[in-house]
User: Fold this.
Amino acid sequence: MNRTVIYPGSFDPVTLGHLEVIRRASKLFDKVIVAVLINSAKTPTFSIEERMQLLTDAVAGLDNVEIAGFEGLLAAYCRQRGVNAIVKGLRAVSDFEYEFQMAIANKKLNPELETIFITADADAMYLSSSMVREIGSMGGDISNFVPACVHDRIVERLRKSSL
Ligand code: PNS
Assistant:
């Protein structure tokens, strides 16, 4: 049986916390599709092309990981890709209510769909893309928060967007 899981998110931009979830999911599943939300109510700082390119570079070496963009409902995208598992990272209790709501809504929309939670690594408990954006745009050091291979590009981009 070929087990594929979808890891959805905004990834605006990718953090070490995201990468940790991808790495761990790639060991549990035959294939991981990292699905980057294209249309969001909030306007992302990084374009869809930038977010996908940063992710592509961050997962280099993980052969069973695909980076894809998706629009519309996640439940519909999972059905379209023939995938019935979603993986999400859980950092703190504060994530739980929102994630629990989404998991139930997705299952109502697509009863075949299971949501699996991976608990964040202790080092990633506090990490979020919005924190990276805020610290980076104010010139702070984000080297402990984002993958080293994409660090300079994220810094450069946040510096430009804050000018
Ligand atoms: O990284 P984020 O912003 O927490 O990711 C949120 C995401 C992309 C997983 C969520 O917004 C989503 O699934 N959006 C697609 C639209 C959808 O299906 N909405 C209903 C979810 S119950």
User: Anything to note?
Assistant: Helices lie at 16-28, 48-58, 74-81, 93-109, 129-137, 148-161.
